[in-house]
Specification:
Length: 552
């Protein structure tokens, strides 16, 4: 490598580092928000700092999630700052800078230096990253990206240098280590072997690899075995191979409608990854294309067809475009809801897929530059610099949305006025602040937007019951139970309100409903209702029918 080339590489690394820091630095003043509070601030396992080995045998915050590496990192950061948010956000900034630098180094194996720099800068300033970089719990996304990029870089260098002997064994050991670490940070880390296989095939087909295909395949194969062992260990710890509890929207749809949802998300993914002008911390329901096939699905298929045609056109002219597209598709698989997950759509989950998008954009820039005239290249360069500057400003300003819960939730209901979930989580914040009237209004609006979430009914009626407003709670609970007949909590609250309102006949009908759906508390409810009815008869009160009205 010439002195000039070496100087260019270090200069590019410096530029990417400075830009990535400038974009993420505003988050250093953020506190703990949203999921940060139960997962980090109030998590006694983190404050106890029991060590990495102990975390290997424990689930993450939710029962069916497993992220011991992330929990261990949180415990170290907690120890550094005594629980203050700053170390958590500082580590996020460092990881964001590291991922941008690693992307630059990975891209240089495929692209001219200037195009690799453009791809890395696009990644560094991408506004869709803000949710991952500005929140504490987003650290898991950053960890997976850094570990995956480090693995890809290791494989590329082993292949292009023709590594053999000791160097080959060191590369193999490092790849296995990274393949173990990535899924211990977050579940999407299981895509690392697939992404390595993609890169290995591309290196072979483009003639960049200097080692035999069988040797390259063996390197990737070891990572598959390593990730498989982690998967089996994870299943033994959690007692299940599935992920977390599906989101309420996904619980209400069959397989066909869920696949419609996946297709309906495609335009949103394209928008967020290519033109993220509008961002929001919460997405539906309602919406997301679960309705019968319509315009959104036609648009989705048109976008996918356009991407396929672009990939076919670029396959020989600029293969990294195809690599980047396939990278994005693979990285989206774990969060696509082909297999149901706990969220329908979240911006933080697009951090890893955006690596592929930025690689593809760098390839397209190189492809266009080769055929464009000098004035056109100059115009496109100026436009690109303007877009990067606008994206950087947008990201830096957006980072402050995660300053505290008041800012986050008030911003979210403005950004997502049609999201039932946005108003539900806002109401929970308001309830915690003692602002019950505002919380009630937010919950009523959440139910009005979408009646498919039993939690909204439960939260609203709990608020009403605390204020001794059972008369108002009963019709809401009745409607909620009609829509969600298996919800034990709604039935129990309806039963309690009916007894409180001296409606034992209605309470007995509710208990009968518990018997019909196999509610485990049905026996208790029946005995209590019968006891209340006996007291009513003994006191000379008229018997009440199932509606709570005395018969004529």
């Amino acid at each position: 490598m010439s002195v000039r080339s070496l100087a260019s590489r270090y200069w590019h690394i410096a530029v990417v580092t400075v830009v990535a820091f400038a974009v993420t630095a505003p988050s250093l003043g953020n506190g703990f928000t949203y999921d940060d509070i139960p997962i980090i601030a109030e998590n006694q396992r983190i404050s106890a700092g029991t060590g990495f080995v102990s975390y290997l045998g424990q689930p993450y915050w939710a029962h069916r999630l497993y992220r011991p590496l992330t929990i261990w990192m949180f415990s170290l950061e907690h120890g550094l700052g005594g629980g203050h948010p700053l170390p958590f956000h500082a580590v996020n900034v460092i990881l964001a800078m590291t991922s941008a630098i690693l992307l630059l180094l990975v891209a240089r194996a495929w692209l001219p230096a200037w195009a690799a720099l453009a791809a890395a800068l696009a990644f560094a300033v991408h506004p869709v990253h803000v949710e991952a970089t500005a929140s504490g719990v987003g650290q898991s996304e950053l960890l997976v990206a850094v570990l995956t990029l480090a693995a890809v870089l290791t494989l590329q260098r082993a292949a292009t240098s023709g590594a053999s002997g000791l160097r080959h064994h060191v590369s193999a050991a490092l790849l296995v280590t990274l393949a173990v670490a990535a899924p211990l940070a977050k579940e999407n880390g299981f895509t690392l072997p697939l992404l390595l296989a993609l890169v290995a095939v591309a290196l072979t087909l483009t003639g960049k690899s200097r080692i035999r295909p069988a040797t390259l395949a063996a390197l990737v194969g070891r990572t598959v075995i390593a990730a498989g062992m982690v998967f089996l260990w994870r299943a033994s710890v959690l007692g299940s191979i599935v992920g977390e509890q599906p989101a309420p929207l996904l619980q209400r749809v069959d397989t066909f409608r869920r696949l419609l949802l996946v297709v309906g998300l495609v335009p949103e993914w394209f928008r967020l990854l290519l033109w993220p002008a509008h961002l929001q911390a919460e997405y539906g329901p309602p919406g997301h294309g679960t309705e019968p096939p319509g315009a959104i699905h036609v648009i989705a298929l048109a976008l996918l067809l356009g991407a396929a045609l672009l990939a076919w056109y670029s396959r020989r002219r600029e293969p990294v475009v195809v690599v980047g597209m396939l990278w994005a598709a693979i990285a989206l698989l774990p969060v696509s809801n082909v297999v149901p997950t706990g969220v329908v759509l979240a911006e933080r989950t697009l951090f890893l897929p955006s690596i592929g998008v930025c690689l593809a954009l760098g390839g397209l820039a190189a492809l266009i530059a080769r055929s464009a005239t000098q004035p056109v290249r100059q115009a496109l360069t100026a436009l690109g610099m303007v877009l990067l500057a606008v994206a950087a400003i947008r990201s830096a300003m957006r980072a402050r949305v995660w300053h505290d819960n008041e800012v986050l939730f008030t911003t979210t209901v403005k950004d997502a006025p049609n999201s039932s979930r946005a108003f539900k989580v806002y109401s929970r914040y308001l309830t915690g602040q003692g602002r019950d009237a505002e919380a009630e209004a937010a919950l009523r609006h959440a139910v009005e937007l979408w009646n498919g979430d039993p939690d909204s009914y439960a939260d609203l009626t709990l608020l009403l019951r605390r204020q001794a407003r059972c008369e108002e709670a009963v019709p809401i609970l009745t409607e909620g139970l009609r829509l969600h007949p298996a919800e034990t909590l709604l039935r129990a609250r309806l039963f309690e309100c009916q007894l409180k309102l001296d409606l034992p006949g209605a309470a007995r009908a509710t208990a009968n409903g518990a018997l019909q759906v196999g509610d485990p508390s049905a026996g208790i409810l029946v005995r209590r209702a019968d006891s209340a009815l006996a007291v009513a008869r003994a006191s000379g009160k008229q018997h009440l029918d199932a509606s709570g009205v005395a018969p004529e």
